[in-house]
From TrEMBL:
Signal peptide start and end residues: none
Matches recorded under PANTHER family: DISEASE RESISTANCE PROTEIN (TIR-NBS CLASS)-RELATED, LEUCINE-RICH REPEAT-CONTAINING PROTEIN
Identification of the protein by name: NBS-containing resistance-like protein
GO biological processes: defense response
All copies of domain NB-ARC, residue ranges: 8-119
A Pfam family annotated for this UniProt entry: NB-ARC
Organism whose genome encodes this protein: Corylus avellana
Molecular function in Gene Ontology: ADP binding
Length: 190
């Protein structure tokens, strides 16, 4: 999602797709999105591929990277992860699997494995752990990043880090939270 939103991001993703599948170490340059679509169709129509498009949030991403299954060889599979089911209707997908969101206990466990290398917090860290989980809004990647960042630190370092996150969020954490938040419906944002 982040790359696709940059200027020439879709072109960059098309070039990466082509070079990864074709095993071409030299960088393939497609120039623009329309040419990229044509190159993908022409160069990959006989290749059997497993293509995973993660965190898709706009139909243009699907249209430019995997518009139709016939762009790829027989037996190819395309896996798409998205928060927006509407993106999966045109063209319709063959099979849809809904992943349930992390509940509080799952979020706690994921964070704790990264922060403490065990499934629950140390007694002195329970309150701070709850604050971090609330701050991360249950986003798995944010929980992982925060847990890894806080691993091995003292309680005072945790308090200081949490204050710092709230004042001026760590850039990677901020991006993770913004991306996750932006992907929610207006009702879910409240």
């Amino acid at each position: 999602r982040e790359i696709a939103k940059r200027e020439y991001g879709l072109v960059q993703l098309q070039e990466t797709l082509l070079s990864e599948i074709l095993g071409d170490s030299r960088s393939l340059k497609v120039g623009n999105v329309d040419r990229g679509i044509n190159v993908i169709k022409y160069r990959l129509c006989s290749k059997r591929v497993l293509l995973i498009l993660d965190d898709v949030d706009q139909s243009i991403q699907l249209e430019t990277l995997a518009g139709e299954l016939n762009w790829f060889g027989l037996g190819s599979r395309i896996i798409i992860t998205t928060r927006d089911e509407k993106l999966l209707t045109n063209p319709p997908v063959e099979l849809m699997y809904k992943v349930k969101e992390l509940d509080h206990n799952e979020a706690l466990q994921l964070f704790c494995w990264n922060a403490f290398k065990r499934d629950k917090p140390f007694d002195d860290y329970v309150e701070l752990t709850e604050r971090i989980i609330h701050y991360a809004r249950g986003l798995p990647l944010a929980l992982t990043v925060l847990g890894s960042d806080l691993h091995g630190r003292s309680i005072n370092e945790w308090k200081s880090a949490l204050d710092k996150y709230k004042r001026s969020p760590n850039k990677s954490i901020q991006e993770i939270l913004i991306i996750g938040y932006d992907g929610l419906d207006d009702n879910e944002n409240d």
